[in-house]
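Tutorial sheet, problem 5. The two components below are modelled jointly, 530 residues in total.
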Amino acid sequence: MKKNFTINLCGRLFQIDEDAYELLQHYTNSLRSHFGRQPEGEEIVNDIEERIAELFDELKAKGIQAITIDHVKDIITRIGKPEQLADEDKPENEQSEQQTDSSAFDDLRSAGRKAYDSLHSSSRKAYDDLRNRTASKRLFRNPKDKIVFGVLSGMAAYTNTDPLLWRLGTVIFTFFYGIGFIIYVVMALILPEARTPEQRLQMEGKPVNPQNLADEVIDDKGGEPVPNSASREILSILLKIIIGIFVGFIALIGFVLAIAFFGVLMTVVFALIMPAKTAIAIPFTLSGMGLSEVWASYPAVLIAFAVALLATLFIPVYAIVHMLLSLSKKVKPMSIAQRIAWIVAWAICLCAAIPLGSMVGMLHNENEKEQWNQVHIVEEEIQEPLATDDTDSLGIVAFSDTLQTADSTQNQLQPQ
Amino acid sequence: MNIENAKSQMRKGMLEYCVLLLLKRRPSYASDIIQQLKDAELLVVEGTLYPLLTRLKNDGLLSYEWQESTQGPPRKYYALSREGEHFLEGLEGAWTELSNTITYLKNIRPEFHL
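Model answer (structure tokens):
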């Protein structure tokens, strides 16, 4: 069973399968980008679309209800791939363009070579090797072969190596202060997943042409990974168990952290939207939190802390909202550069919020101590009017409440 | 350079001439031309025709008009223009020469071989 669309092609309606539609769309797009350089490009593509519509009509006349991907593939081989369709005038231009391209590329490479000449020849060889392997590839998360997010098999596809090695390496490095884990999480956040067949081809470094695309779309439905040898099999099962346990553990911690995060977030949101001076808002005002003294003496610290805290809280919220919107295709998913920028910004805010927070706490405590001392002095002076019970309870009260209690004690005492 | 590539180069060179020849007989629309070229085993991929037709039209060798068809939307019918006819005559001369050359080269006897 397949999802089916109705498309309007040159004023005629056709029923077409989803994957067939994707392939057709890619085909016409690649035709457009191929002929786009010529002034009459649009006309040519329209004529070809007209032809496709005609061929679809023929299929319809044969009693075919819905156009499948095989029909589209046939039509593409019939009409020809974009690179086959160049007019006689054009090939020379294209060649010269390719030549300039390659010469620019050569320049770049020779510049790169010069820069690397200072390094050892072995490392240069490794670099060239990697370069060759990664040429015309793009880094994606691999959805076809994944244990958690498919980061490592994506890396493996990019460098044309074995994902098992990457997985083993990451697990081993996780035992060194969690380096492997942290790098993995960052990569998982940065790298996009290869969702479309086109991206999967780019990931594998195959040229994106209708033939490969069609193969990829069909392969999508049921391609099994290559069979493994026994030792590999055992190793990968072991790895999966270790990773499974680890992921379960992390998920548990993550769950607790998420609840804590949500709690803090709600508190902050609540504090921000609460109308001032109502009874319920009092705990969220500066004096309510016992910070009025800090605010009076060190406003800059408090402002910096508030900004850092808010950014630390709302960057993830923004990222999640953006991700949800991009899943429903309302906005474009972030580019890698954007993701890196946000992650760096978030890390900076977090790193700023923690010391600033402890600084605010310290200042707060200092103020309390001062007041505490003052209260004690006052208490000692006028011990008689107060009952001993009161003093005791005052001594037990938790830190956060001390300030308020001290205030009220002072108020009580002042008239006397 | 494989054989298929050489063949397609030859066909490409001839395609323009053949299309003009076909259109001299009668005005046709693209799919019509494709069918005839396929019958003559000249066309491998249909798409090659479209850039050619558009270029010939823009060069003023062809004219076209939309004609209603019995089935589906109107079709673009291409016809040879006056300029195109002159052009075709020029090509015809060139073709005869080429054809003669080929025949001559094929039939040349290896007289001076020892």
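Marking note: The beta strands of chain B are 28-29, 62-67, 75-80. Full credit if you identified this.
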